[in-house]
Amino acid sequence: MSGAAVAAVAGAGGGILAQVVTYPLQTVNTRQQTERKLLRLPDADVTPSEASKTTLQQFIKIINEEGPSSLYQGLGSSIVGTALSQGIYYGVYQMGRDWATNKNKKSIGTLTSLAVAALSGCVNVLLTTPIWVVVTRLQTEKQARKAKLRRLSEAAGRYELETGVRDRSFVEKPVTTAGAVAEMYKEAGLLGFWKGVLPALIMVSNPAIQFMIYEALLERLTAKRRLNKAGFKNISASEVFMLGSVAKLGATLVTYPLLVIKSRLQAKQDIGTDDSLQYTGTLDAVAKMVKHEGFLSFYKGMDLKIVQSVLAAAILFMTKEELVKLAFVLLRSNKGRKLPA
C-alpha cells in the first residue's frame, strides 16, 4: 500500500471519529451561524431573548423542543462526507508532498507544503461541496421550518376561529436526506448543490494554515528526538493532540467569517420574511450582513466553533498518526513473514 493510500485511509478514519464525537457541537454552531436577526424587524425569526441565549441554553432548548436526536440530524450524510473529504484531502496532499520531495530530492519547505495543502483543499471542496450543502440543510431545516410553521400556524388559528374547522396541513414532517436533496434541487437546480463554493474555496486557506502551523511545530518538537525501535520519533498521542489543537485554533481565528457566509448561503433561504435576510450570492451576503446586522454577525458562534474545531482537529490528528503507525507496522510485519513451502 502506498504512502498516499495509507494517509487517505488514516485521514478518513480520524475524520470520522472526530465528526461523531463533535457533531452535536457542530449542529448548534451551524444554527448559530445561520440565525438572521434584523433589529428593525419586530417579527424576525430570532427574538432578542433567543439571540442572547448562551450556548448551553441553546443546547437545552433544542433538546427540550426537538429531542436529543436533533443534535445528530444529518450525521449519516456527514460521515459519508467526512470519509470522502478526509480521504481525498490527505490522499492528494500526500501524493503532492511525495512528488515535490522526489523532484527536489530533499524535504519540502513551508511554502511548498502550503501550496500542496491549498491544492488538496481545492480538489476536496469541488468534489464534496454537494454533500456539505445537504448536511447544512439537514442541520438547519428544523430551525427554518419552525419559523415558517409559526407564521403558518397563526394563519391556521385564524382559519379555525372563522370556520370552526382545524386545519392539520401545517404539521411539521420529519426531514430526510432524500427530502433535503429534492428540495434543494427544486429550489436552485443542480448548481444549487455548489452554493457557498466560493467562500469554501477561499477557506482552503484554513487547513493550509492549519497544516503549516502543525508541521512547523511538529518539526521543532521532533528535531532533537531519536528514532525508536519501530523507526518512529517518540511523539506521544497527547503531544500530537496539543499540536493539532494549537494549529486549528490559529487557522479558525483567521477564516471564521468565511465559514459563516458559507453556512448562510447553504442554509434554507426562506428564513425570515424580508429580502434582507436572503442572499443571491457571496457578495450579496457580505453586503447585507454588514448593512443590516453589523460586522459582529461574521463572528456569530465563534466561541463554540473554536471548541468544536480544536477538539475535532486534535482527535483527527491523533487518530490519523496512530493509524498511520499501525498501518506501517502491519505492512512491515507482513513483509517479514515467510511464505509457506
UniProtKB/TrEMBL annotation:
Main location: membrane
Molecular function, one GO term: transmembrane transporter activity
Parts of the chain that traverse the membrane: 71-93, 114-135, 197-218, 239-259
Family annotation (PROSITE patterns): SOLCAR (PS50920)
A Pfam family: Mito_carr
Top-level taxon: Eukaryota
Membrane-related topology note: Multi-pass membrane protein
GO cellular component, one term: membrane
Family membership noted in the UniProt record: Belongs to the mitochondrial carrier (TC 2.A.29) family.
PANTHER family: MITOCHONDRIAL NICOTINAMIDE ADENINE DINUCLEOTIDE TRANSPORTER 1-RELATED-RELATED
Full protein name: Peroxisomal membrane protein
Organism this protein belongs to: Klebsormidium nitens
